[in-house]
Amino acid sequence: MRKRLILNLILLYIALFSLGYLLQKTFNFTVDDLESAVSSFGIFAPLAYAILLTLGLSVPMNPLPDYLLVNLAALSFSPQAAIAATFFAHSATLILNYYVARTFGRGIFKSFGKRSRI
Fold this sequence. Notes:
The protein has 118 residues and is mostly helical. 81% of the residues lie in helices and 0% in strands. The protein has helices at residues 2-27, 31-39, 45-58, 66-76, 79-113. The radius of gyration is 18 Å and the shape is elongated. The two termini are 16 Å apart.
């Protein structure tokens, strides 16, 4: 039972990674495209970057790869603003993923706990 679950999780990870890669290649995002989109927000550009990075880290199969967004911050903002916005985005992603896992993971852990003993 556990081997099958682990195999299914590995296959799911490979499928999600492959789909994300294909979506990124299909939409063909570059650093220049993202930089022009984020800098169009003016003074709120670090906030727009933090929101895009949060979505890129928490949403599966997102066509916006996080390595492009982090490079965008390094090229577009001052070091202090880039570090602060990246820290905010990662913290927000951790909080969001924690609550999603807490909400939807309870049923999975309860199913592991209901094993009959022989």
